[in-house]
Amino acid sequence: MTARHHPSDETLMAHAAGTLPAGPRLVVAIHLDGCRRCRDTVGDFEAVGGALLDASEPAAMSAGAFDALLARIDAADGAVEATDAALPRAAREAPTTPEGVALPARLARHDVGRWRRLGPVLSWSRVGVAGAPEANVVLLRIPAAGAAPRHGHTGREFTQVLVGGFSDGRDAYVAGDFDEADEHVDHRPVVDADGECVCIAAVEGRLRIHGIGRLLQPFIGL
Ligand SMILES: [Zn+2]
Fold it and tell me: How far is the CA of 34 from the centre of ligand 1 (A)?
C-alpha cells in the first residue's frame, strides 16, 4: 500500500519536533506506521533538529550538565509513559470493527468507543486519546457511495484513510492516504462506490457543517 497523499513537510517537522497536539500526533503516527517515505522524512528532520541542538550547546558545557540534560529528558519521557499507563482501561464497551477490518494497532493504547449512528449513512466513534482528554479524534465509517455532510473548519483537520476511499472535489483519497484541511477548505467527502470507507480524523477547532447536516453537530460535539 503506497500512499499518494502525505502530511505536509510542516506537519512532519512539527511531529519530529514534538510540537503537534495529541490528536493530530496520533493520526500522523498512524500514517507514519504505514508510510516509509514519511518515516524517512521525519528521521531527516529529527537529525537536523539534533544537529541544531548540538550547534547551540555551549562548547565548554561540562559533562555533568549534559548528563543532567539527559536525565531531564528521561524523566520527561517517563512522565508521559506513567500518565498513559495510569489511564483506566476497563469499564467500557469493547470497540467493534467493520467486517474484516483491523483498526490500527496503535489505537490499542487509546479508548475507542463503540460505533454510533449519525444520520442515515454516517457512523462514528470517539477515540479517547490517552493522556489528552481535550483531543478531538473520531473514527468515521461511511458505506459505499455515502457522503459526509458538507462542512468547513475553524481549524485544522487531519484525516488518515484506513479502509476504502473517498473524493471531496479537491482530490481522491484511498487507504493509506493522509489529508490535511484547514479553514480555507470546504468539502463534502463522498465515499467510492465499490466499498465502505473508514477514516480516523483529528479536528482542531470546530467543524462548520452546512445545510441540514448542521442539525447533527450537537450530537458529534465537534
Ligand atoms: Zn506518507
Answer: 8
Residues with CB under 5 A from ligand 1 (ion): 3, 6, 35, 38
Distance 172 CA to ligand 1 centre (A): 15
The full DSSP string for the chain is: ---SS---HHHHHHHHHT-S-HHHHHHHHHHHHH-HHHHHHHHHHHHHHHHHHHHHS-TT--HHHHHHHHHHHHHHHHHHHHHHHTS---SSPPP---TT-PPPGGGGGSEE---EEETTTEEEEEEE-TT-TT--EEEEEE-TT-BPPPEEESS-EEEEEEESEEE-SS-EEETT-EEEE-TT--B--EE-TTS-EEEEEEE-S-EEE-GGGGGGHHHHT-
pLDDT tens over the chain, length 222 residues: 678 999 999 999 999 999 999 999 999 999 999 999 999 999 999 988 777 777 776 655 566 666 666 666 555 554 444 343 333 343 345 455 656 677 899 998 999 988 888 878 888 899 999 999 999 999 999 999 999 888 888 889 999 999 999 999 889 999 999 999 988 888 889 999 999 999 999 998 777 776 655 655 665 566
Q: Is residue 182 part of a domain?
A: yes
Distance 167 CA to ligand 1 centre (A): 18
| Structural domain includes residue 220 | no
